[in-house]
Amino acid sequence: MLFLLALLTISNVQGQEVVSWEPDFRFAWSDFQGTVPVSSGAAATTASGLTYRFSTFYENDELHVDYKVFAYFYPTKSWYKPALCNDITLLHEQLHFDITELYARKLRKKLAETKFTENVKEEIRKIYKATIRQLNDFQNKYDSETNYSRNLPLQELWVKEIESALKQ
Asked: Which domain of life is it from (predicted)?
C-alpha cells in the first residue's frame, strides 16, 4: 500500500525526516518507523512523494526557470505489520518508492519541455498536480494488478518493468 505526500540521504523537508531516492538505496524494515493505524487492514504502507522548488531569472530579456524535483520517502509516516510481512512485501514497498522516482523524472521532463510565461508559478503547479494524479493512478494500478504483492507472477513482472524503466 502507498501513502503519497505531495510536497541513502537523510534530511528534512519542512521539519520531516526524509530519504531521497537513490539508485542503490533499498528498504529495510527498520526504515518503516511510523505507528501502525489500529483500523488499517494493510500489511504495510510506504509514504513517499514528490516535491519541487524553482526560481526564475531573465537573461537577454528571456525568462529562464531553474527547478529541482525530488522523490522522497517518509520513514516516520511509513509502517508495517511484522506478522504479515516478508521479503516480497518489502520488495513491493520498494517498488512504490521506485515508481515515485519514475514520476519525478516525468515531472522533470515535462518542466524541461515547457515554454513558461510570466505565470510560471501557476503553470508549474498545474504540471505538478497533473503528475501527482498520474502517479496516484499508476500506484493504484500497481497495487491492484499485483494484489498488494500476493500475485507473485505479476509482482515479478512489475519488478522487471520498473527496474528497466529506471535504467533508461
From this structure: Bacteria
